[in-house]
Design a protein that fits this description.
Layout: E1 5-14, H1 15-29, E2 33-38, H2 45-59, E3 63-69, H3 74-79, H4 81-87, E4 90-94, E5 115-118, E6 122-126, E7 146-151, H5 155-174, E8 194-201, H6 209-220, E9 224-229, H7 236-247, E10 251-259, H8 263-270, H9 273-277, E11 282-290, E12 294-298, E13 302-306, H10 312-317, E14 320-326, H11 328-345, E15 346-349, H12 351-356, H13 359-378
Length: 385
């Protein structure tokens, strides 16, 4: 697991309203090199603005490298990629094809990270894809999500990871390794006073780093654990860590999706509600819009923001990236933001709510739970849950 490094300036970005202006400003100020990784890159308002900014950067002589997942970015390949390539942007697709009926484990391993590094100087890490907050047929409120803007020594491991994956994808496509040195190496001088570390999940040396960071923080909690997670389907170790914390007198609050873009997983998650509620864990469903966040705050000091959900896809299959921050000021900012979301758009669930649901809805949740469990087993990961 990566070590904490000090000397960073880390700013919390809430939703696309904060994220895209900051991102576009950084891209437009770029002088040498831009790396961008994302799971989704849509041909909508946000995508059009980012694509145009990347093209402007190339016209100034900036080296621009964009890596998009082949499954999440299926529409990108048809709609956005041709224009980027024509403008001179270097574009690669991570595992372009996904054979639905060939459930090979490696085909399910997607690039779920959302990362940007500009000139080796500023980085963005979080859960926000290149996509509009507001969808045409969705709720009238923006999708709820977070990212961070990073300056300081922490940019170095972020850039190293992005460069490494870029080279791996290039090698896989060309079947040979070619030197691809960085144009703008990371600048490591201090930019602030925040301690943080950069964690990834891959299928080699970092398979469980993000999960272990969560478990360590929950295991050390003494007052409060607050988790906001879009897709929440934890394994046994994680569930037990939350229960153990609650039994120690720690207040455990889970902010989960109430409006879902993946109903099957939402129904499966709801099958876990009686287990948590019976053990004193407080559950809130965010119902104002789609909750897409993957963040947590523990004891007002430890915080994480990133792309990793607490579900089998993120913790056992996908490439993910989170920043963990050890700073009371940052933790207070994130905790206050989550409290606003909880107060303004969430509904607390009580122990009796499950029993008041119709038998059909309870049966649907348990059926979804079994389907998700079966899918985990088919993929070969059932022993972890």
């Amino acid at each position: 697991m990566s070590a904490f490094v000090g000397g960073n300036a880390i700013a919390l970005l809430e939703n696309g309203a904060d994220y895209f202006p900051a991102l576009l400003k950084a891209i437009d100020a770029a002088e040498r090199e831009i790396f961008l990784e994302t799971y989704i890159f849509e041909n909508d308002g946000a995508g059009t603005q980012v694509a145009a900014a990347l093209a402007r950067a190339v016209a100034r002589g900036v080296a621009v490298r964009v890596l998009v997942d082949g499954f999440g970015g299926r529409a990108f390949v048809r709609s956005v990629m041709p224009g980027l390539v024509a403008s001179g942007v270097g574009v690669q697709i991570y595992r372009r094809e996904l054979r639905v009926f060939a459930m090979r484990r490696h085909r399910l391993r997607r690039l779920h990270r959302k990362l940007v590094v500009v000139d080796g100087r500023v980085a963005f890490v979080g859960g926000i894809n290149i996509v509009d907050d507001l969808t045409r047929d969705g709720p009238p409120h923006p999708r709820y999500d977070y990212a961070v803007r990073v300056e300081g020594p922490l940019v170095e491991p972020i850039l190293h990871s992005m460069h490494h994956v870029w080279r791996l994808v290039a090698w896989a496509g060309l079947r040979r390794r070619r030197p691809q040195p960085l144009v703008a190496p990371a600048r490591t001088e201090p930019a602030g006073g925040v301690r943080a570390c950069f964690l990834i999940r891959d299928n080699l040396r970092h398979r469980r780093d993000i999960e272990e960071a969560y478990l360590d923080a929950i295991g050390a909690a003494r007052r409060e654990v607050v988790i906001a997670c879009a897709y929440f389907f934890p394994g046994r170790r994680f569930r037990q860590a939350l229960v153990d914390a609650a039994e120690r007198g720690v207040e455990v609050l889970l902010l989960l999706q109430g409006v879902s873009d993946h109903p099957m997983l939402q129904y499966a998650t709801r099958a876990l509600y009686p287990f948590f509620l019976a053990r004193g864990i407080r559950l809130f469903e965010y119902r104002q819009s789609v909750l897409h966040a993957k963040v947590a705050v523990v004891d007002g000091q430890w915080a994480t923001v990133g792309s990793s959900n607490i579900d089998p896809f993120s913790l056992l299959l996908a490439r993910e990236a989170n920043v963990v921050i050890d700073d009371a000021g940052f933790a207070a900012d994130l905790r206050a933001s989550l409290e606003r979301a909880r107060a303004n758009g969430a509904h607390e669930l009580r122990s009796g709510d499950w029993g008041r649901l119709s038998r059909l809805r309870r049966a649907a949740s348990w059926a979804a739970y079994q389907v998700v469990r079966l899918a985990i087993g088919v993929a070969g990961y059932g022993r972890h849950n």
